[in-house]
Structure formats: structure tokens, C-alpha cells
Amino acid sequence: MTAVAVQPSLGRRFVAGLGTPSGAVFLLLVALLVAVVVANPNFADPNQLVRFLARTAPIAIAAIGQFFVIVSGEFDLSMGAVIATQVVIAGNVIGQDEAMILPGIALMLLVGVVVGVVNGLLTTVAKVPSFIVTLGMMLALYGFVRFLTGGAATGNPVDSFREIGRGLLLDTIPYPVIMLIVVGAAAWALMRAPYGQTLLAVGDNPVTARLSGTRTVVVKTSAFVLSALAATVAGILLVGYAGVHPSIGQGYEFQAITAVVLGGAVLGGGRGWVLSAAAGAISLELLFTLLNIAGIDATWRPTVQGAIIIAAVALGGVAWRAARKPSAPAAAARAEDPDPAPPSKTTTPPITTTTGEQ
Amino acid sequence: ACSTDGSVDPSANPDTGTEQPAETQASGEWFDQAVYDEQFEQRSATFEGDPETPWLQYIDGEMTDTAEWATDEPMRACFANASISNPWRQTGFITMQQQAEALTESGVLASMEVRDAGDDDNTQIADIDYFISQGDCDAFIISPNSTAALTPAVERACETGRPVIVFDRGVDTDCATSFIHPIGGYAWGIDTAEFLIDNLDEGSNIVALRILPGVDVLEHRWAAAEKLLTEAGMNVEDHFTGADPTEIKSIITDALSAGDVDGIWMDAGDGAVAAIEAFEDAGAELPVITGEDEMSFLRAWQERDITALGPVYSNFQWRTPLLALEMIANGEPVPTEWVLPQVPVTEDDRDALIEANEGMPDGHYARFGGEDLPGFPDAWQNR
Amino acid sequence: MSAVVGARPVRRRRLSTTAIVYLVLVAVVALSAVLVTAAGKSFFTAGNLAAILTLMSILGFVAIGQTLVILAGSLDLSVPYVVSTASIVGAGIMAQGTAGILPGVVAALAVSALIGLANGLIVTRLRVHGFIATLGVGLIISGWLGTSFQGSFGSAPPEFRTIGATLIAGVPLSTIIMLACAGLAALMLHRTRLGHHLYAVGGSAQVARLSGVRTQVPVVVAHVLCSTLAGLAGLLLLARTSVGSPTIGSQGGYDLMSIAAVVLGGTLLSGGVGSVLGTIGGVAIFAVLDNVMSVLEVNPFLKDFIRGAVIVVAVALYAWRSIQRRPPRFRKEAGA
Amino acid sequence: MAAARPLHAPVLRASGIVQSFLGTTVLHGVGLELRAGEVHGLVGENGAGKSTLMKILAGAHQPDAGTLELDGEPVSFASPIQAQRAGIATVYQEFNLLVDRSIAENVWLGREPRRGPVVDRRRMLRDTQALLESIGAQGLDAGLPVRQLSVAEQQIVEIAKAVSLDARVISMDEPTAALADHEVSLLYRIIERLTERGIAILYVSHRLREIFDLCTTITVLKDGTHVGTWPAAELDERGLVRRMVGRELSAFFPDRPEGAELGEPMLELEGAGNGFVDDIALTVRAGEIVGLAGLQGAGRTELLSGVFGADPFTRGTMRLQGRETRIRSPRQAVRAGLALITEDRKGQGLSLSLSVLQNALGVVRAVFPGRTGAARQAAPERLAELALVARGLDQEVQFLSGGNQQKVVLARWLAVAPRVVLLDEPTRGIDVGAKYGVYEVMRRLAADGVAILMASSELPEVLGMSDRILVMRDGRIVGEVPPTSSEEDVLALAAGAEAEAAA
Ligand SMILES: Nc1ncnc2c1ncn2[C@@H]1O[C@H](COP(=O)(O)OP(=O)(O)OP(=O)(O)O)[C@@H](O)[C@H]1O
Ligand SMILES: Nc1ncnc2c1ncn2[C@@H]1O[C@H](COP(=O)(O)OP(=O)(O)OP(=O)(O)O)[C@@H](O)[C@H]1O
Ligand SMILES: [Mg+2]
Ligand SMILES: [Mg+2]
């Protein structure tokens, strides 16, 4: 006789899901979209929307990459430097030579893989905290690339390569949007696949994962590789969109982490939805657009961004703790709840324990 | 003699003399009528010296007597550089290194020790103090990271009694042997604003793309331009871009979605291509644009044949400090304030400049003035 | 009884991490001296040592504070903006002259402490991860700085500036103040309840709570002290530069550099283990490294590369030895 | 030791305590009275609410309803510190020690002695040393970091900490869970000293023998309700179990299957060893359950982790199903058909914030991703077979009680159909009913031809379940005894000559 309840219906799970921080970001996304459209009705034009999406694709893809690392319990601060590196490679290696496009892309992917593997192995095998590893990688990459190029990339790569970040499929849908959809779908599938679940398990408890036969070194390292590859894709899109410049990619790591956290993932690992990370990134861009439309000085932008992430994370935590309180009157009776549980490691609906007979 | 107070005679120090008691600046008020007027004049002033070597030209004025430093011995120069963190500085630094090499050949320089402060005031102060205390510098060259903060350190360098040459950005003291700089930011602002006003109708929409706030050299450019543009009845909105082309593109795209954009004003040229592309991607008519003598901008300008101007913050000024040292070694007087010419690139000389700089990377500056140095062109091409 | 507590193998006293940090420092100094001498210059001159010590002092202040915060299990990414804020506030008030020195110092430190309090309360009361909380607060302040101040602001009277330029027996006054702060911080950590509780909370907040420690207090205090120390760094920068600057903090990259120095000093990023003494060692390693790279005129871009590599390699070194291995019971490789 | 003492007035009285988590009430108006100098046993199945009640007394939880009285005065504790100040000390089920701090710092945490404004470190060390001596643990150096202590030593530090509070009431939540049988006697002596000082002890344990050895009064909880309180003398084991479980358990261990035949050797070790164990030779056959007995620290866990490749053997040979195999990582072990159920469920066995289903599929997904689909299909049924009690497959395992968590651990491993199962303390901290369930699973596996190697500190369990018993001491196997041996025989072997005197 089992006492295990059946899985709740899809609809109920959907509604329950929206209540979690990872689900709530989609509500935030919709709300911001509505606000932007109200403020600037032009924005509702599908053409505009799709262009906006194209513009946010690089950061959304970067956020997806960062998600894999964060959910495995680590940080990747080297993302922006990887993007900058790839941009420089695009300019210097591909340049104006169409024949170099494929070798160039291959080189960029290889560089991405190498960076990810080095980050991953230093974190897992050498046991250096990933914050430090990727900080070091960031310094080293920025320094090395600029050292090699004397700080200046040759120039924009050939236009046919830049089409990836600039062009439209059938004159309607920008390639970056397609790329975002493909990456998003792949990431979603990956998180549902055994690999993604194992990644979650490694983030939750690496010891358990190892004793379950998980190659934690391989799994975590591959998360770093995915992150570096996402940065590579973002770099390819950005160099297409905007051309070569040393400042491209700067700050992307913090932007991506912000997006992932806004998407309800928990720093420390084990929890979060990958598409929420992308939604977090898009929400952030929508917010900036809104500020712009509202005529707020761009210099205030960091302030708003700072306030938003603090509020989002705090509210996420509060919402979760409120859900844990038994019922309204009882909750009122102990306003001061010195709950020992760590802030936001947990995000599921309440449980009830049924008693089984033997 | 060094003066420590901030109230330096502004006319002696046009580009930076506006660093008045800083409280007034806090409000973002960068405009200074007197300096503006002076630079307005200097744009059409006559420059002493050979126009073939603009890096040696200067506007007639007070000279510093350098007889006390005359020497036949090669000099050990110590250069405290703010950074080489942007293409303009990189190009200039290459020119400077090439110049140093040439002067070493000719026996003027024994060595040039360089310290790079990595954009940090504190590091640069430490660098200067190190140069002073190690004591084996025959002359100091300083490219200050910021104006007010470096003033005390420059004063300490002056106190050693050796020649001190300050270039690019100034400091709030007139103790330096020579302060070398192009005419200045207001001149840039006047040139560009006049160009836009001449080429656009009243009431046109102009988007100004600015790198970042708070840098005097950049702020002066905009202060002058904004004044003229608004006076001429233009609709201007300005944005900070961090020089990031992604950001530039987004700003233009948003602006185009809200209405027409007729003109683009930039305080540096290296993002101009992204701005132009944003118009192309949106299928909008290309604007009248002011960029810089940066190669990517000049090339884009040539390719698309737009209406444009390339204002210049003369990159060749990086040669001048070392050449000033040569003059000092010879005991020749040097201009106390050495104002270099600053001639915008127009459609007329654009093509010639592009040809002269064939093979140079984007991020190179057309008026870099190093064509006669021994390493040309490899040193600039293979960075 | 003896079977319970007696059977354990003899516990070897191992070299402490701090000792290793200082060994690394000695090695770095020795190597630097050799390299500098090989380049035909001298390392152990008064001027050069003063340069290194000066370089240490600013990062030192920030890193001491960062140590406290990291030990308590949090993180502070807002320090660069606190540094700038303190320099702005101090310079604004001191612009009136000598009479403004004391009020300027007090106000700058008070504002810094308030920012720290905000950080601490967001971390403890709103239960936002220190990374996010201080990133957010840093962004908030940077927006304010960027909007309200452009270019330098205010000024420091000459009397105040002497702090930045005074040497006592060849040691910059700023370094002496920094070392005094380090001493006080170490004393606080090891000799006060607060210090013990700070370690406890960083080690395990749950354990600390169940032991009756008010877990929020050490975290808040650590954040307040960290910001106050960052404020001191800002004031010192004010003394050196003579004007307030809204970007002076971000110019130095004090957020990531201080964290790197703390970790280089052997403190665990996850909290609960480490020392101020180690951090000073870490800061010194950075300073010597930077100094020797400057003396050797290493390409500035290569400098960043080397810095990054050194951070990772050094921390890998500590991590390698601190992987907790139980002492083996059987050492021989052949079966008995 | 259970001799009746004169009853004093209650020191601490709890009544009508109601506590709920997440809308589920786990204590329904429970009451309890503690008297000075008594050892009060608190028993009940897993999830009955024992730990929760203790945490309420300790001020770690605030009850939704109910009152606490200390010496007849109503009190309420908003935090652990208030409870401690009031004289209630607690030794929690999970260790609450800072592993990177010294014993002394741990003992005095939150109340460091001061001289003037500074902490008096010397006095801290001296007092701790004296304290350790007073409870009979003179071998421990108060300055040692806790990380270097064995589990038993850590338990002593926990108790020292409680004693140092000068508490009038000390609650202990399964203090012996991590101790081997003979080490428990040290605890007995400590508890005796405490009761002599008039301290009331609330004692939670699943080991009924301890309850009868120590307690004067016994309170039984079941599903968060108070079943009753009796003088220990009025109860026997059978009766106590009936009150706990609500029915009579016919036997503690499932019967051995009649005339079952042992199969081929599945796991053979010869001269195997690493840094922690040496010269290990053993054989486990298909269908056989081999018990590993030994004192705390004898090296049983190390032996299992050596077999499983977590601490790979560096010498000797291992054969699996007759084929020589070298296992260098847990992954290889899993692929070779091994399973390891660890002694530390929360730290090593489960992903606590993942769901029941995610945990149940953890091993399959990690090692045989191709079989995930089938395993997912089979999961609900397998969990049902194990009689898992949970709200749903998407419930996070951290909210399950210990017994149910162990069932999820079993489900994880059964999903990959292992041929050799290594069990380390398979019933640590789980109640009699759940224990029986685990034993049944073991029997069923053996019947299916699985080889089982089980390390346990509970001698009755080893004797009751094993077909053969290997005894370890100091990292070596020192002998083999049949399941018909007495506990004393096993202990004598495990402890060597030294312990024989004690036994
Ligand atoms: N912090 C919590 N949040 C949610 N549920 C909890 C919490 N603590 C305990 N529970 C639930 O309360 C019930 C009682 O748990 P408790 O730990 O008191 O049982 P126990 O009698 O100590 O069991 P065991 O013998 O397994 O230790 C269990 O169902 C448990 O899942
Ligand atoms: N954290 C630790 N640090 C150092 N030595 C330890 C530690 N934990 C255990 N030991 C030592 O390692 C050896 C084996 O310990 P372990 O507790 O794993 O054995 P065991 O036989 O599995 O006992 P049990 O399963 O009852 O815990 C013992 O000598 C013990 O003292
Ligand atoms: Mg319990
Ligand atoms: Mg064990």
C-alpha cells in the first residue's frame, strides 16, 4: 500500500510553478512588456518586438550558459572576457576573408571549450573556488588577448559572417532570435535529460552525486564548457550585431548572473529553471527600455538595476517563507520567526505527511 | 615654482584651467565662457613652425627658459602614463615609443622608463613618487589620469628641479616646464556643432553618443556642442554608451523607433560604425554624423559617402613631449603651454588620409603623425 | 574509555596556511629582488619599499574589511563605490578648509558605515545572498555617484594631505594606520566574543544560532566595519589625490582585488576559516608583484594576465594542501 | 542503573504543545514532565515528533500552541539562548559543532569567558580541559580542532558543551546513534554523573535496550500524539514496542528463508588494503548476507568505501563474479553492479532539495542515462513496494522523516539492479517499523541472488540478519563468527583483550 500521492495535474503544476521565484519571472516579464507597450505603443509592432528580442538574444544566451554553472553550485565570472576574446578572434582571424569563416568559428568554439575545460578542471580537480578561478581567468583572458593584439582588433569581420548577428531569415526573423530559440530549446531539453538532472544533483550535494557514480569532474566541467560556449555564441552574435570593439562583453558576467538570479535560481546550486534565466535577462532589458522611454537619465540605470535585483531576491525569499507558514492566524501569532533554515534553498509547495500502515 | 591652490589663471591653462574650485563642477556645469572664447579663437590662430611637422607647431606665447638643463649627455626620461586602455592611447603610445627609439639613436635619450597606471589615479601618484624617489630621472613626462587628483604629485615632480612635461590632460598647476595639448575639447565641440548646424535644418533631431561622464576632455567637447546646438534650435538628446557598440546600436534603434534621427554627434569615433549600421538595419536614411579621425569611421564614411566630419584630438601630441625634451637638452626654450594644431578631417582630405594609412587597423588614428619615424608602418600595423 | 579517545593516530601539527602565505611572500620578494637586480635596478631601496608599502595601504584597508565579511560568510562587492563615496563626502566637507577636516572624516566614515549597515541588514533581515546584496547596493551607489558627481569634487586642505605623504622611519603613515587597523581587526577576531561569533557564523550559522549566538549581529557588524574601512581607504585616497573623485574606487578595482587578496591570504571564500594576518600577506604579495612588474616595465596587459595566473595558482596551492585527508593508518604499500 | 529514585517536583513541564510545519501538524497537544535527577526516555517511530518536541524545549522552534513551565512558572523561549539561560541544554541529533574551531571554542561558543572586554582564552582552555576530565574524557586536548575528532569524540564534545551550561535539564537526541555498543557505556557513566548532580535528562533513542538501561520514566509519542508516560519498571520491550507501533511486532527480524542455497562467489577480496584498512580477505556469495562488526573506528566504513572505489584499494586483488576487477571510482563500481548505501544519509546519500523522484532516479541518470525512461516508469511501483510515505513524488526529500529518506536511498540503488549491495549502518536512526522494512528488502534481495555486505554497530542487527559475521579491529579483519554467537563473543573479538576486561 503506497502512500505516495499521484502527480498533480499539469494545470495545477503550472499554477503552482508560477508561484515559485522561477515561475514568477515570467509574470514579471509579461508585466514589463505591457508597461513598455503602454509607454511606447510602437513597441507592440511585431517587427519591433522581434528586433528587441534579437537585441536581447546575446545576453539571454549568456544567461542560459551562466545558469548551468550556477545550478551546479559555481560562478562563471570569465564570461565577459570570453565574449571579448571571441570578438577579437572574429576580427583578427576571420577578417575580410570569407573562406576563414568556418575555420574561424571552429577556432572560436575550440577556444570556448578550452576556457571551459580549464575553468572546470581548476575548480573540480585543483579545488579552487570557482569565483577565484573564473576571476583569474577573466584577468588572464582580457590581459592575454589585449597583449597579443596590442589592444586593437583588426576591424570588423566580413559581412557574410556578421549576418549571423545582424541578418534576417526570410527578411522577417532575425537570426539571433532563431539562435535564442534553438539554444533555449536545447538548454531546456538538456535540463530535462539525465545530464541536466545530474547537474542539479551535483549542485545540490556533490558527495552524494559522486557516490552515485556521477563523474562530478566531468559534469561540472561540462557546465563550465557550456557556459563558455554560450559566451562564444553570444560573442558571435554581438560581433555580428555591433562589430568589433574591445569593450564588447564587458560586464556581461554580472549581467548574466543578475539575470539568472532574477530567474529564481539559487546561488549555491541545486535549484532553478533554465528558461527562467533567459526570461530574467529579457526582463532586465525590458526594464532598461522602460527607463529609457520614461526619460530617466541613463546614469540612474545601475541604481534601478541594483534595487531590482535586491528586491527580486528578497521578495523571492519572503514569498517562499510565507508559503511555509502554516496559516494566517498562526503566522500572525509568531511574527518574529527565527527560522533556522537557510534563506532560499527551498522553493516547493507545502507538504503534508500521510501515515502509512505496515 | 609650484602653486598649490586651485585658482590657477585659466587663460594660462585653457584645456584644463577650468578646474576651478570643484564645487561648481558637481552640478555637471562644465561650460566656461572664457575658455570657450579662447579656444574659439585658437581654431583660427596662426601656428608657429612647419605645417609639415604639426607636432612641433605651437601658438606663440610664453616660453620656459630651459638653459639650466642643457646637456650633451643622453637623458634618462621617466614617463608616467595614465594607461593604454583605449585605441587612441595605444596608437599614441606606439608613436611615442618610436620617437623614443629615434631619439635614442641620435643620442638625446639614454632610456625611457615607462610606468603604466592602468587608469588609476592612486597608482599613477605612486608611479610618480617612485620616479622621484629613485632619483635617476633626468626628466619627467606625465600623461595625467585625471586633472585635480594628479596635481599634488606633479607638483612634487616639479620640486625635484628637473624638467617636467605634462601632456594630453592637464593639471591644476603651472609648475610644469611645458604643458602640451591640442587646442581642446571646446574646439572639438565648436567644429562639430557648426558642421551639424550647417548641414541640418533647424529643429532637426540629433542624438549625441557620449562615452562616459566626468572626463574633462570629453565633457568640454559636449559642453560646447550642446550650447551651440541648442542655441541653433536643434532637438538634442544625449546618451552615455561606455563606447560599447552594442549599446550604441540599441540607443539608435530605440531612437529610430520613437521618431526620425537626422544627426549623430559623437565624442569619439570608434563606435560610429555601429551607429551607422543601426540606421541601415532599420532601413532609415543615413544621418549627418560627426566622428573622429579613427580609421573605422573614415572608412565607413568613405564607403557610404555620407555627410560627415572627423574632428581630431591630435594623436601626434604623443611625439611632442620627447621632442620637447630634445629642445630642453639643447637649451632651447619651449612653450610653457604648447598648444598644438587640431584640424578636423573633412571630406576633402579624407581620401588622402585613408590612402596614407593603408593597412592600418581599425582603431588607428589617421592624424597620428608618425610617418617619418623609423618603424613606420610596421610598428603601427602589427601591434 | 581509552578505546574511544585513545585509539586515534598521533595528530601531526601542520604548517598553518598563514605560514605558507608568508613563505610565498618571502619567495616572491626573493624572486623579485633577483629579477630587479638582473634588470640592473635595485629592489631594496627606501624609495621602492615605500612605494610597495604605499601600494599595500589602500588595498590593505579594503582587504581587512573584506576579510571580516568573508569570514562571516558574506561578501562585499560594493567597496569600490564606498571608497568613492567617502572621498566625495570627505572632500565636500573639507573644501571649507582646515576646520572641515574633522567633520569631513567623521561624515565620510559615518556615511560609509551606514552603507555597511544597509548591506548587513539586506543580508540578514531580507536574507539576500551577500553577493547579490552588495552587488545591488554597489550598483545603487554607482548610479547616484554617476548622476550627481562628474569629475572631481571638493578638496582636501594641505594639513589633511600630509597624511598621504608622511613617512615615519621610511614607512608611509598610511601603511602604519593600515597595519594598526589590521591589528585591531585581528584583536577583535581573536579576543572578543564578537570575533569568535563572527567565525562561528561563517563556519555554520545554524550551529551558531543553536549555541545561542545572535547570528545576525556579527554579519551586520562585519559589513559595517568593512564599509568603514573602505571609507578609510577613500579618505586616504583623498589625502593622496587632494580631491574627491566619484570613480576613484572603481579605478582601483578594489572589489575583486580585495577578494582575491583575502583568498590569496588563505581565507576560505566560504567563510569561517582565515585570518587578517594572512590577508596582509596576500595584499603584500600583490603589492610586490605589481611593483616588480612596474619596475620591469612589463606590458600592462601582460600584467593582468600574470595577476590572474598568480591568483589561481596560489589558491590552488592552498586548496591542494587543505583538502582534508585523514591521516592514513597504513602507509606501507605491500600487504602485511 | 534504572533503580527508582524518589520523585521530585517537576523541573520542566510542557503541556498541550502543538507544532505544525507547512500546514502539517506534527505535534498535537503533547505534554511532558521532567523531574530532577531522572532520565526520561522519549520514544516513538520515525517522524513521531521527538526531535521536534526537543527543539521546542530548546527554544529552536516556537510552538503554535501550548505552554512550558519551569519550576511552575510559565516560560516561553524565543531563541535557543533564552532556553539555555533558563537551564535547558540540548544535544541535537545532528552534530552542532564548528569543525574548524577548537573544542574549547565550541564548548564556550556564545558564552566565551571574558576578562574585561577581551575573551579569556587561557581560562577557556583550562575550564574545558577540566570539564572533559570531569566527564571522563581526559584523553582529549581542548585545543584540538573538532575536524580532527572521530565521531565518538565529537559526541563527547557535544555533551561537554551541554554540561558546561550548568543546565538543570539536558535533552539528548539519539546521542548513541553514532556510537558503537561498547562506547555507549562511557555515555552511561556520564549520564550517571549528571543525574547524581540532580540534572534531569530527556533521552531520545531508538535503541530500546538503552532506554531500559537508563530511564526511570518513559514517554511514548506516536504520530505527534502523546500515547502515554510510564515508569520504566512497568514496561518491557515487547510492551513498549506495541505502544510505539500500535501493534505487536512478531519478531524484530524477518525469518531466514528455509534451506536457501548460496550461489557463486560474487565479491572476493584478497590482501586488499589502502591507507585505512589492510590485508582484507573476504568472500560474499550470491544470496548471502555477510555482517561486518567492529567498534567505532574499526574501519568498516573504510572497507566498504574501498570496495566501492571511493577510497580505492591500493593493493591486493578484488574479484567480482569470479572476474578480477580493479575498481578506482564509484562510477566503475556502479557499472560493475555494486551499490553502496552510506551511513550518512543526508550528507552522502541524498540530494536533499531535490524531489523524491529525482532522487530515486539519481543513480540511473548518472550512470545509465539510457535506462532513465524505464526506471521512471518503474519508480512509483518500487517506492510503493518500499511503503514510502510521502505527499507525492515531487516532494523534496529533506522534508521526509529519517525512515522514509532511507527508503528513497534504497529506491535509488534498486533502480540499477545491483548484484552486490554494500550497506553501511542501514538502520541508523530509523525506527523499529522502518527497520523491519529495510530488513525485508535485504532478505528479498538475497533471495534474488544479490550478495550483501552489511556493516553495522548494532550487534542484534548483525546477529539477526547475517549469515556470517566478520569482525574488524584497527583496520583488519580479526575473525569470523557464526550468527549463533552471543553479543559478548563478537564484542570480545572486536575490542581485543583490552575490552574483554570491560565486558
Ligand atoms: N523544519 C521542518 N519543516 C518541515 N517539516 C518538519 C521539520 N522538522 C520536522 N518536520 C516533520 O515533522 C515530523 C516530526 O519530525 P521529528 O524530526 O520530530 O521526528 P522524530 O520523532 O525525531 O523522528 P526520527 O526518529 O526519525 O528522528 C516529521 O514528519 C518531519 O518530516
Ligand atoms: N574526521 C576524522 N578525522 C580523522 N580521523 C578520523 C575521522 N573520522 C574517523 N577517523 C578515524 O578513521 C578510522 C576509521 O573510522 P570510521 O568511523 O570510518 O570507522 P568505522 O569502522 O566505519 O566506524 P563506524 O562505521 O562505526 O563509524 C578511525 O581510526 C577513526 O578514528
Ligand atoms: Mg529525530
Ligand atoms: Mg562507519
TrEMBL record, chain A:
Region Disordered, residue ranges: 329-358
Comp. bias (Low complexity): 344-358
Keyword Hydrolase included in the entry's annotation: no
Subcellular location, record wording: Cell membrane
Membrane topology: Multi-pass membrane protein
Keywords from the named record: Cell inner membrane, Cell membrane, Membrane, Transmembrane, Transmembrane helix, Transport
Transmembrane segments: 20-40, 52-71, 101-122, 128-148, 168-191, 223-244, 256-284, 304-323
Chief location of this protein within or outside the cell: membrane
InterPro entries per record: ABC_transp_permease
Protein name as annotated: Autoinducer 2 import system permease protein LsrD
UniProtKB/TrEMBL annotation, chain C:
Membrane topology, record value: Multi-pass membrane protein
Record carries keyword Phosphoprotein: no
Superkingdom of the organism of origin: Bacteria
The keyword Coiled coil appears for this protein: no
Keyword annotations from UniProtKB, A to Z: Cell inner membrane, Cell membrane, Membrane, Transmembrane, Transmembrane helix, Transport
Organism per entry: Agrococcus terreus
CDD domains documented for this protein: TM_PBP1_transp_AraH_like
Location of the protein in the cell: Cell membrane
Name of the protein described by the UniProt record: Autoinducer 2 import system permease protein LsrD
Cross-referenced PANTHER family: ABC TRANSPORTER PERMEASE PROTEIN YPHD-RELATED-RELATED (PTHR32196), AUTOINDUCER 2 IMPORT SYSTEM PERMEASE PROTEIN LSRD (PTHR32196:SF71)
InterPro entries named in the record: ABC_transp_permease
Segments passing through the bilayer: 20-44, 50-71, 78-95, 101-123, 130-147, 167-189, 219-239, 259-289, 301-320
TrEMBL record, chain D:
Gene3D superfamilies: P-loop containing nucleotide triphosphate hydrolases
Transmembrane segments: none
Keyword flag ATP-binding: yes
All residue ranges annotated as the ABC transporter domain in the record: 12-499
Coiled coil (residue ranges): none
SUPFAM superfamilies xrefs: P-loop containing nucleoside triphosphate hydrolases (SSF52540)
Keywords: ATP-binding, Nucleotide-binding, Repeat, Transport
Taxonomic classification: Bacteria, Bacillati, Actinomycetota, Actinomycetes, Micrococcales
Protein name: Ribose import ATP-binding protein RbsA
Keyword Transcription regulation: no
